[in-house]
Write a structure and sequence with these properties.
Elements (H helix, E strand, L loop, with lengths): L6 H18 L3 H21 L1 H37 L1
Amino acid sequence: MPAPIDEEQRQNNLKIKREYRCEKRSSPEELSLEKEQHRQAQARYREKNRLRLNFCSRRYRLEKKHAQQLEQDEEEYQRLMALGDED
């Protein structure tokens, strides 16, 4: 069973991997090619999952809006309760 890796060793391993990747794509042409391929992959993913992405974004916006409305309602309720206690 391998010994657990401490945080410093893990960071060092990540640094070595990052340096290797940077050395591996040495030319600007390779870098631009990788970026273009990544953009194309993102476009394919968005096209394939358009409905799901739209649904998730709508749900996120509605949840945010509802949370904001609940907060305002709670503030209004607390204000009205404070007015009722004064009587």
